[in-house]
Write a structure and sequence with these properties.
- It is a single chain.
- The chain has 977 residues and is of the alpha+beta class.
- It is 57% helix and 13% strand.
- A seven-stranded mixed β-sheet has the order 7-6-5-8-9-11-10.
- The longest helix has 55 residues, at 699-753.
- The radius of gyration is 31 Å and the shape is globular.
- The termini are far apart.
């Protein structure tokens, strides 16, 4: 009875370790975001360093002299968890002070990587150490080694679920720590009858004290004290008045130099009053859309803009959405009363931005005004994608205007900032026929679905005179907002960047290319010696490199394994193979987990609140998968064939996931997806542990190897997927790359452990098949752009001859239609595949065969290559007649009246393909006419800008060497004399 009870208490202790570790990780991640920029670069490095320290902790536990005493007193070790948590929290929150970096100073890349890596060590190193020691400790209770992994994962599941619920109920982060410490102390108290009685009793008393402190509100006062310290650290003076929390963030507010300031994550969110700057923004927007009655405002820190818009007599309704849905209403409760005046027309919707747009009807708003900041993370990128712009266009009225603020550049724009603006412009042009620019450090694009927007200050000033906002912002001020030289130069740079890139700069949810430019820009600001390449590698280039690396590594592993097996036996699995299986499976599983998180953010907003819940489902899946696998190998006991079957299961799962992610999933549907990912990932470790046990590895050594392989694979998978596969390949391409990695396990396990002739033949045949896949993909792209595939589509009285049009390095094949036996050109036939390569519908890329007359009038078209849902495509094609007869050379073709209900993405993709390809063909057929741009300022007499001014190159080289001038090349202009 005593032994059984002792075994139960040991299991509870292991459970408490998993519970506290994941709960603490979630809270420390939120602290990390208050100090460091929260893009995928810094976030990826946070989790990468966390897992690397866990590997080092596991290796440290492999030293018996260090881990021996720890195993004997293991029940007391979890009591050190709260101390490690507080140490790591202190290091992260004071990282800038320790590194002598100002609060508003951009951290250098070296400082960022060093600080995050070392300040992330205490808890994660200790956690890795506990894992290995706990495996050996459980042997006293006669619990198998694989059970530690299962129990720890279940504890992590409960911890993740608990932290999610507590944060959802708006409990202070400091308060969340108190019950977590009580769980650790309670687990230690259960050991009081067996060993370390006095320490266990003290721990039990400490646990009760933690609960009492929670009840009396110590956690809330702790939070207020932390907020006051952060306020003084950032603003260097007192004035903090309080703090409020939402499920997604913590906001500190107070008075600073006569202004009411609200801060979050180390930066200012609101600064009131701010009417002067807000008036300029509102004036520019209302000048473009003077008759706006229903207005949608999107972004943080736009309270003053909303108030000014609501003060306009013609405005009936203003809806304000923020990335944190609970921010707006909570903020109104704490700001001074004078700043709440004039909000009677403003409706604050506590919904995710894209979720709200889906609920809106077509043409509901006259003006959509958005400020989203630099797209240096995947959460912000979703507000700059083609898919989002299509939703915005749907909710705009016929004469509506979409206003999009983004980081521009006042005097200088480097390659990264230029590429960001060019990508946004190119993506807007794919949706809106008319796009103009308001230049500046914070630039703004104005786009109209049907109305032609303008940047002529004379027209805009005339409109402002009739508006109430002219009392706050004089109409003549428009000339400063739309400086013609700045407009011309900035737009020229964007257009040149679009023309210079062979790959399209189109930014989509499924392929976030804009995120790449944002990351490069963030790196450049950190002082990294890295520059954006002229051309990003294409998808096929990335896949070919990945395939080559996998083949080389896998073949080396197979040959090494075969050499060892010659002396050890045919069913022997080498340690290197086991490490590779576990490592690759962790890379694949963590990669899929990140892709699911990214897709979740696209559909349902920031994942911040649901991070713990998602981890809970993932960990629960690990429990189920590991339990099933442990029982399976005990019953079957196959060698390499187990890994072969597991790799096949993983490949099958990825193929199913690719189909699922093509659709928009409801919130609850994601939870079983994360559960399934965990189940697939949880099967590998018990199988590997079983094989190591057969090879007479000690539990300690097996735990060290497996923990190292698992965590190293997870760290690598997260970093590679977030920073390489997803930005360069998109979701489907990244899943394909992860499938190739899983395929390397199929290849190695098949060749290494099987002697069946068919199995060997299949494995060796996979090499030429993979190479064939690459060549076929190139061939398919070329084949899909050849209009002569459709020659039989036309009547015998029409002859189609081949013409090749060259533009720079590119050449385009077009079919020229003439009457048989004559030279009169009737029109052209072309494929949209190469002329509009980035256009996609609901299911993926669209390729149309199009016939136009010589003026660009659409005569006919048919959909050739697509992955659309047949019912959606059928709805669109029923309205095909609405497009025929319209001129696609202008790029303004659209369906008549309302959008195609239920098939919006397919319809928008089809019209975008026609418009982009038609406009491109027009520019190829008549390059001079297409490139000639009419200046909106022809009636003005101001002198044009002068040419580039000669500068002393040696002088500037010297300044650069002395670090007194930016190393960026610059272009200076002088007025013409």
């Amino acid at each position: 009875m005593t032994c059984l009870k002792s075994g139960h208490t040991m299991i509870i202790t292991v459970f408490s370790v998993g519970f506290f570790s994941l709960l603490a990780q979630t809270l420390l991640y939120r602290d990390f975001l208050t100090v460091f920029d929260g893009n995928e670069l810094s976030t990826g490095w946070f989790f990468f360093s966390w897992l690397i320290w866990m590997v080092l902790g596991a290796l440290l536990a492999g030293l018996r002299k260090i881990s021996g005493p720890a195993v004997r007193k293991y029940e007391l070790l979890p009591l050190l968890f709260p101390l490690m948590f507080l140490l790591q929290k202190y290091l992260l929150l004071n990282a800038r002070v320790i590194c002598s970096t100002g609060e508003y100073e951009t951290l250098s890349l070296t400082t960022l990587l060093t600080a995050v890596f070392f300040f992330n060590a205490p808890l994660s190193l200790f956690n890795g150490f506990l894992f290995v020691c706990g495996v050996e400790w459980l042997k006293e209770a006669k619990v198998p080694a694989s059970a530690f992994y299962i129990i720890d994962a279940f504890g992590s599941f409960v911890g993740a679920l608990a932290v999610t619920l507590l944060l959802y109920w708006r409990m202070a982060e400091e308060s969340v720590v108190l019950p977590a410490v009580a769980v650790i102390c309670g687990a230690c108290f259960l050991h009081r009858r067996y060993r370390s009685e006095y320490v266990s009793v003290i721990a039990g008393i400490a646990g009760v004290v933690m609960l009492v402190l929670l009840v009396v509100g110590v956690g809330t006062r702790w939070q207020e004290a932390d907020a006051a310290r952060e306020w003084r650290r950032v603003l260097h003076e007192d004035g903090c008045r309080g703090v409020f929390v939402t499920p997604q963030g913590r906001y500190i507010y107070g008075n600073y130099q006569g202004a009411f300031v609200l801060m979050s994550w180390g930066g200012t969110v609101e600064s009131l009053p701010g009417e002067e700057e807000a008036a300029a923004t509102v004036a520019a927007n209302l000048a473009e859309c003077p008759g706006a009655k229903n207005i949608l405002v999107v972004g943080m820190g736009l309270l003053e803009e909303c108030r000014l818009l609501g003060a306009e007599p013609e405005v009936k309704r203003v809806v304000w959405l923020t990335p944190d849905p609970d921010y707006g209403r909570s903020m109104l409760e704490v700001i001074p009363a004078q700043y709440r005046e004039g909000m009677n027309k403003v409706e604050i919707a506590a919904l995710d931005v894209r979720g709200y747009l889906r609920r809106c009807g077509s043409g509901e708003f006259d003006l959509v005004m958005m400020e989203s900041g630099l797209p240096s993370n995947l959460t912000v990128n979703r507000y700059y994608s083609l898919d989002f712009f299509q939703e915005v266009r749907r909710v705009l009225s016929a004469n509506g205007v979409f206003s999009l603020g983004f980081p521009g550049g006042e005097g200088y724009m480097g390659k990264e900032l230029t590429a960001i603006g060019a990508s946004i412009l190119n993506t807007l042009n794919a949706v809106f026929p008319s796009v103009v620019l308001q230049p500046g450090i914070q630039s703004r694009f104005f786009a109209g679905p049907e109305k032609e927007v303008t940047v002529d200050p004379a027209i805009l000033a005339g409109r402002l005179n009739a508006l109430n906002i002219s009392k706050k912002f004089p109409s003549d001020g428009v000339y400063t907002l739309f400086d013609r030289f700045a407009v011309t130069e900035q737009m020229r740079r964007y257009r040149d960047a679009v023309a210079a890139h062979e790959q399209p700069l189109l930014n989509r949810d499924s392929s976030p290319v804009l995120f790449v430019y944002g990351i490069f820009f963030a790196l450049k600001k950190m002082g990294a010696a890295i520059s954006l390449p002229v051309q990003l590698p294409g998808k096929m280039e990335v896949m070919e490199v990945l395939i080559a690396i996998l083949l080389v590594v896998t073949v080396i592993a197979v040959l090494t394994g075969k050499f060892i097996r010659r002396f050890r036996g045919t069913d022997y699995v080498t340690t290197g193979e086991l490490f590779w299986y576990v490592f690759i499976s962790s890379v694949v599983v963590l990669g899929i987990d990140l892709l699911l998180m990214f897709d979740f953010q696209i559909d349902h907003g920031a994942i911040f609140l649901f991070f713990g819940l998602i981890n809970a489902c993932f960990m629960l899946g690990l429990v189920f998968g590991a339990t099933a696998a442990a029982r399976w190998v005990d019953a079957v006991g196959w060698g390499n064939r187990c890994f072969f079957l597991l790799a096949l299961i993983m490949l099958f799962f990825i193929s199913i996931l690719q189909t699922i992610l093509m659709k928009e999933l409801p919130l609850l549907y994601y939870l079983p997806c994360f559960l399934a990912v965990g189940m697939v990932g949880g099967t590998w470790l018990p199988v590997a542990a079983h094989q190591m046990k057969k090879q007479r590895f000690s539990d300690r050594k097996a735990a060290v190897w497996l923990e190292a392989a698992d965590t190293a694979g997870g760290a690598s998978g997260g970093l590679i997927t977030a920073l390489l596969l997803l930005p360069l390949l998109g979701i489907n391409g990244a899943l394909t790359a992860l499938a190739l990695m899983a395929g390397s396990c199929v290849f190695m396990s098949g060749l290494g452990g099987w002697h069946w002739k068919t199995g060997k033949f299949f494995m060796w045949a996979s090499i030429p098949l993979i190479l064939l896949f690459s060549s076929v993909a190139h061939g398919e792209e070329k084949k899909g752009n050849d209009p002569f595939e459709f020659k039989n589509y036309f009547s015998e009285t029409v002859t189609m001859s081949k013409i090749e049009i060259k533009s720079g390095k590119e050449s385009y094949i077009v079919g020229k239609l003439t009457l048989s036996g004559g030279d009169t050109v009737l029109g052209y036939v072309f494929s949209t595949g190469k002329l509009a390569p980035a256009v996609e519908g609901y299911g993926g890329k669209l390729n149309l065969m199009v016939m136009v007359d010589v003026s660009g009038k659409l005569l006919d078209f048919k959909v050739r290559k697509n992955r659309e849902t047949p019912s959606y495509l059928a709805k669109v094609m029923k309205r095909k007649g609405e497009l025929l007869g319209k001129n696609i050379f202008t790029g303004l073709t659209c369906f008549n009246g309302d959008a195609v209900t239920g098939a919006t993405y397919t319809a928008d993709g089809l019209t975008s393909a026609l418009n982009q390809a038609g406009h491109k063909l027009a520019s190829l057929l008549n390059p001079q006419g297409a490139d000639t741009e009419i200046s909106p300022y022809q009636d003005q007499t101001s002198p044009p800008p002068g040419g580039p001014r000669d500068i002393d190159a040696e002088k500037y080289r010297k300044l650069i060497k002395e670090k007194k001038l930016s190393s960026q090349p610059a272009l200076y202009w002088q007025p013409a004399e």
